[in-house]
Specification:
By secondary structure, the protein is an alpha/beta fold. The protein is 26% helix and 28% strand. It has helices spanning 15-21, 67-74, 143-146, 150-163, 180-191, 205-211, 240-246, 265-271, 284-296, and strands spanning 5-8, 26-32, 41-47, 55-65, 90-98, 110-114, 126-130, 134-136, 171-174, 195-200, 215-218, 231-236, 250-258, 274-277, 305-307.
Length: 308
């Protein structure tokens, strides 16, 4: 399973230089003009956006590539919205300019951010980032490493810390523990003092252990419900049959949190557990907490590939 991807942009463009020279305020960007497959992506000139109230113009050094990017581009979540559109919801870069009302950052600051799925714009030399979406880039990470963090780590954090209220001493089962969200979830759960069970393919068993899983489960050759029992929390990143089988591993009063859709409430009620879905939201404060954990060495992003 691909863990995370960071795409690095080559950026020698200055928005202010364009303005001073009188040249058209354009940048290079990857856009799509209609919904569909990857063949709809076009590398072309696009207008440099202007930051509004509470917004910053970020000179993008790297943009994260996530599965949700393709889902949105394909129209899976609906075909409304302005086209052409620039995908990309994770960015790491430098503040080029700040709009009215921005108080925490200034030109030249290194930041990273998860931008709203309703807006995007990361696959470009410049992107608009709201102040409430951004945090200071972890000092120990390169921009390509930092761009692999926001969406996946915030999803894991909001699932485990916010929705499940995972506490020290509890037991958690994380499906897809070597994936983008799962790899952060394993590390966050370990940092919160939980006993971590996690599933992955045979080739990723060692990765699970290195991330901090106390019990690594090969989902192809082992039945997780025979190993993980009386769990306080299950994090479902898979859905389908895996989710359906997960109710039985929870103790009474436990919670199943899914990031792939709202779980079956009838099954949850029958099992005597709570079940909820999580759709990640931008959150600068939580991203800053994650950044601090990265700088402390508690969390390490897993970058599987870099793209030009």
């Amino acid at each position: 399973m691909i863990t995370r991807i960071a795409a690095i942009a080559s950026l020698f463009l200055s928005a202010s230089a364009f303005a001073q020279s009188g040249a058209p305020a354009t940048m290079k960007a990857v856009r799509y003009h209609q919904f569909g497959g990857a063949d709809q992506l076009v590398y072309e000139d696009a207008p440099i956006p202007t930051p509004g109230e509470g917004e910053m113009l970020i000179r993008v050094h790297a943009a994260g590539v996530n599965p949700v990017d393709a889902k949105i581009r394909s129209g899976m979540f609906g075909k409304e919205g302005t086209l052409p559109a620039i995908p990309g919801y994770d960015v790491s870069g430098i503040v080029e300019s700040a709009g009215p009302g921005v108080t925490k950052f200034k030109k030249g600051d290194e930041v990273f951010a998860y931008m709203s799925l309703q807006r995007g714009g990361g696959y470009a030399q410049f992107a608009i980032v709201k102040e409430i979406e951004a945090a200071k880039k972890p000092a120990g990470l390169s921009h390509d490493q930092a761009a692999a963090v926001p969406l996946a780590s915030l999803t894991a954090w909001q699932a485990l810390a916010d929705a499940a209220k995972l506490e020290k001493g509890q037991a958690v089962l994380i499906h897809g523990g070597s994936g983008g969200v799962g790899s952060f979830a394993v590390q966050i759960a370990r940092a919160r003092g939980a006993k971590v069970f996690a599933t992955a393919s045979a080739r990723n068993q060692q990765t699970l252990k290195e991330l901090g899983a106390g019990v690594a489960i090969d989902y192809a050759s082992q039945k997780f419900e025979e190993i993980a029992k009386e769990m306080d929390v299950v994090l479902d990143t898979v859905g389908g049959e895996t989710q359906a089988r997960s109710f039985v591993v929870l103790k009474k009063g436990g919670v199943l949190v899914s990031i792939v859709g709202m779980p079956d409430q009838k099954k949850a009620e029958a099992a005597g557990v709570r079940a909820t879905g999580v759709l990640v939201k931008p959150d600068a404060a939580e991203l800053a907490t994650i950044a601090a954990m990265i700088d402390e060495g508690t969390i390490k992003p897993q970058v599987s590939m870099t793209l030009p």
